[in-house]
Amino acid sequence: MCETCGCSTDGGAVLRKPGQTGYHVHISESCDGSDSHHHGEGHPHDHSHHHEESSSRKVLLEQDVLLKNNLLAERNRGFFEARNIFALNFLSSPGSGKTTLLEKTIPLILSHFPVAVIEGDQQTTNDADRIHILGVPVIQVNTGSGCHLDAMMINRALKELELQNNSLLCIENVGNLVCPAMFDLGEALKVVVISVTEGDDKPLKYPNMFHEADLCILNKIDLLPYVDFDARKCRENAVRINHHLEWLEVSAKTGEGLDVWQQWIENKLKQR
Ligand SMILES: Nc1nc2c(ncn2[C@@H]2O[C@H](COP(=O)(O)OP(=O)(O)OP(=O)(O)O)[C@@H](O)[C@H]2O)c(=O)[nH]1
Ligand SMILES: [Mg+2]
C-alpha cells in the first residue's frame, strides 16, 4: 500500500459490469486488493456528502505531494543538465523485461559512453546484482511498501553513485503501470516497456502512462507467434493517446531490434 501518492485510498473508484455505462457501485479498494467497504449490486447509495469532503482533502494532499516532488525533480534535472547526464526513466508492469533490456543494452553503449543505473524495487537487490555483473555503477532503491520511485529517492541515490559527466543514467522504476507515471524524477525522457504477453489493450487501460511516455518499447517479440497479441493495434492504441510517442519493437532475449534501440540512445547522447 502506497501512502505517499494516495493509491491506497479509493480515489472515487467505480465498478462497472461489462457493457454497463451509467450505474456506479462505489467500492473502497486498496492497492493490496483488500475491499473494506462495499455496497452490493442494486444499492447505489448516495453517500457523496462525507466523501466529497475527504476526497477534496485527498486531492489537496496529492497536489502537495506532487508539487514537492516536482520541485525536487527540477533540482535533479538541473544536476543532470549541468553534468550532461542523459537520464532515462524506464517504466513498465512487473516482468515486462526492463532489467533484461538493460543487461543487453548497457554492453552495447559502454564502448562509447559511461553508463550508471538506479534500480527501483519494493524489495531485494536482485536487479542491482544483475547489473553489477556488467561492471557499471549501480544502486538499488527499495521502496518497501511504496509502489514508485520519487524525486527524493533519486536525489539520495545520486549522492551514492559515481556518475561521470557526459554519461547515460538508466533508472529502472518499480514495476507498476499506474503511480510511477505521476512522479517526475528529473529524467530527460520516460521509456515505457510493454511485452507481448500483457495484452494489446494496455495503452487503453493505463492511458496516463502512455500519455507521459516519450518512447514505447514493445518487448518479447520473439513470443509473438505464441500469443494473441496484435502489435499494430497496440501501437495504434498507444499513439491515439499520445501522438508524439515513439515506438520500437525488440526482443531482449534474441537481440532482435536492439540495433535500432542502440542507435536511438546514441543519437540522443550525441545530440546533447
Ligand atoms: N521470451 C522473452 N523473455 C524475456 C524477454 N525479456 C525478458 N524476458 C524474461 O521475462 C522475465 C522478466 O524479465 P525482467 O527483465 O526481470 O523483467 P523486469 O521488467 O525487470 O521485472 P521487474 O523488475 O520485476 O518489474 C524473465 O524471465 C526474462 O528472462 C524477451 O525479450 N523475450
Ligand atoms: Mg527489473
Task: Give structural attributes.
single chain; alpha/beta; Rossmann fold; seven-stranded parallel sheet; three-stranded antiparallel sheet; 8 helices; binds guanosine-5'-triphosphate
In short:
The protein is of the alpha/beta class and 272 residues long.
What this model shows, in words?
This protein is an alpha/beta fold and 272 residues long. It has one domain: Rossmann fold, CATH 3.40.50. 37% of the residues lie in helices and 19% in strands. It has helices at 48-82, 98-110, 126-132, 151-160, 202-205, 207-212, 231-241, 258-271, and strands spanning 14-15, 25-29, 35-38, 86-92, 115-121, 138-142, 168-172, 189-195, 215-219, 246-249. A seven-stranded parallel β-sheet has the order 6-5-7-4-8-9-10, with helices on both faces. A hairpin with a 5-residue loop joins strand 2 and strand 3. It is globular. The two termini are 39 Å apart. Residues 22-45 have low confidence and may be disordered. It binds guanosine-5'-triphosphate and magnesium ion. Magnesium ion is lined by residues 98-99, 127, 172.
Bound molecules: guanosine-5'-triphosphate, magnesium ion
**Helicity range of the residues?**
25-40%
CATH topology name, in short, is Rossmann fold
Distance, first to last CA: 39 Å
The description of the largest β-sheet is: 7 strands, parallel
What is the H-and-E element order? EEEHEHEHEHEEHHEHEH
Low-confidence stretches: 22-45
Rg, Cα atoms, Å: 20 Å
Would you report the number of β strands? 10
Oligomer: single chain
- Going by CATH, the homologous superfamily would be P-loop containing nucleotide triphosphate hydrolases
Total number of distinct structural domains: 1
Protein structure class:
alpha/beta
Mean of residue pLDDT values? 87
Strand content: 15-25%
Note the total helix count.
8
Question: Which overall shape is indicated by the principal axes computed on the Cα atoms?
Answer: globular
Main sheet: strand order: 6-5-7-4-8-9-10
